[in-house]
Amino acid sequence: MSDSSAAEPAITRAGVAGPTASAPGPAATVPGPAATGAGRAFGWRLMTPLLLGSLLNPINSTMIATALVAIGQDFHVGAADTAWLISAMYLSSAVGQPSMGRLADRAGPRRVFVAGALTVCAAGLIGALAPTFTLLIVSRVVLGIGTAAAYPAAMAMLRAESRRVGRPTPRYVLGRLSLAALGSAAIGPTLGGLLAATAGWRAVFAVNIPLALLALIGAFAWLPADRKPAHTARAEPGSGSGSLDPLGIALFAATLTCAMFFLLRLADPRWPLLAPAGGLAAVLVWWQLRHPEPFIDLRMLARNRALVLTYLRHGLTYLVIYCVLYGFSQWLEEAHGYSSFHAGLIMLPMSGAAAFCSIAGARTKGIRAPLTVAAACLAVGSAVFLLLQSTGPLIVLLCAGALFGIPQGLASTGNQAAVYAQAPADGVGAAAGLQRTAQYLGAITASGLIGLLYGQRASDSGLHEIALIGVVLGLLLLVLTLADRTLRAGAPRTDG
User: Where do the segments described as Disordered lie (predicted)?
Assistant: First the structure.
């Protein structure tokens, strides 16, 4: 058995208690140098490039919002066409996150992080110079793939650092990744509007170049070199170990594409898409069960019920969050009559509460408690939105938004810690990628629901229907969280 796998029993995963003091293995008997390294572990040199890289995907998801009108005017396309700039990145990110995570587990997280940063630079250059709208969509696809590398690579890097120093990754370290995502997503629209107003919409793409270069420089300077994974070293020739399963990735991408096209048009369902989506999903399952090193390890997921439940909770949570996030802002403008600038200011308490609760959630020791509070706040916050009217006072709108920010921060850090605790030791990157895929599916479904419930214009009745869905799903999440015994402190984890 390799050193890393031998040390694994002695390392307690984040938020899950375990008998580390008496556990046998190298992690319990490491001499002075390792202890010294542990003191320097998870410091600013390691975290700076990881945080820089991890903010690129969420900030690009929201930064484009305030540049869409200007882009449409320059290329003479309407809102239906510019929406592809959003959908294209969501789709490529949903496929790219688990793909890059799998690659990080096999080729090494530092290599994947560096490759992702270089891809982001290329995407920024393509977008900044794009002469046609089609090429601009291509740049968003490339940007989704490039930015998808950072988060799963960061999770795999932290797991490797945990093995190296013989102690679990602190929750506050994982919380920093969540805070980077939440904070950058919150400032994205403001930054995009500022860039578009002062330097033109192409600056929204070009700004990725210096950001990615900073992450790249930090990666070369401070991220530790990759070590060959133990399972790859033990692989038999021809066994398929280490394969990236390109057919599995292609089938996964095709299935997601069909599902996305269907979910985005719930107001006018494209029922014929269900047949190819179901057929592709069936072929994907058959191929993953047949492949010796599948892209998605379905057998591991079948054994790891805790991880599957975490994906389900995360996807449903963000379905509600995105419904309210996008539905509330649109309602503020169209039903309440606020400008886009003032609507953004009204939503600042929501972003601030999310950031504060992300920090607070990162400082908790358990996983179940913050997730329980998050589910309860989703239900209560959605119930408050049931009472909102287009003639309501400003203070009520501010308080409603702040209340809904609480579950954003707690659910983000809680589910992230749960994935880190429940994923197989050599598959944290891929597991983290699938967590983000569940989040993007929630976002895509939320977009379709908003279009279905609002129709041509946001209204009080449409907001109340969205809120009712939030109440029902919040209560469902509360039941799922309370009934999940694997979230209790000391519960054994299941490795695939």
Answer: 1-30
